Amino acid sequence: MTTKKVERRIKIKFRIRKSVNGTAERPRMSVFRSNKQIYAQIINDLTGTTLASASSLGMETMPKKEQAAKVGEMIAKKALEAGVNQVVFDRNGYLYHGRVKELADGARKGGLNF
User: Are strands 38-44 and 28-33 parallel, antiparallel or unpaired?
Assistant: First the structure.
C-alpha cells in the first residue's frame, strides 16, 4: 500500500525522467534515499548498465548529512576511475535539499561535473 507522499514522489520522478537520460558521454547519476541510508549509482541508460555505485552502508555512526557527503565523494572517485567526469543528476523525485544536496555537493567536490 502506497501513501500519497510516495505516489507524489513517483509522479515527480517520472516527470523528471522524461527529460533526464544518461548516455555514454554523460551518464545519469541516480540517488535513492531511505530513512536510514542513501545510495547513488552512475547509469548508462543506452546500454542499461551501472558504471559505479556507492552507499552509506556501514557509516551509521556519523550524521546522515555527513554520510551523504561521503557517499558523494565516493561515487565521484569511482566514476573518475571508470572514466566518467560529467554526469546528469537525477534526484529521483526527492527535493533538492538536505541529504540529496549534500550528496551532490560531495560529488562536485570529488571532481564530477553536472
Answer: antiparallel
Query: Is 72 strand, coil or helix?
Result: helix
Beta bridge partners of 88: 28
pLDDT classification of 107: cutoffs 50, 70, 90? very high
Count of CB atoms within 10 A of residue 32's CB? 14
Cβ contacts of 22 within 8 Å, gap of 6 or more: 28, 42, 43, 44, 45, 46, 87, 88, 90
Query: What distances in angstroms separate CA 68 from CA 1, 85, 105, one per listed residue?
Result: 28, 19, 9
Contact 31, 69 (CB under 8 A): no
Helix (H, G, I), strand (E, B) or coil at 27: coil
What is the residue whose three cell numbers read 526527492?
94
Q: Which residue, 56, 39, 31, 43, is CA-closest to 87?
A: 43
Q: Which helix (H) or strand (E) holds 11?
A: helix 4-17
With 0.85 as the threshold, say if the pTM is over it: yes
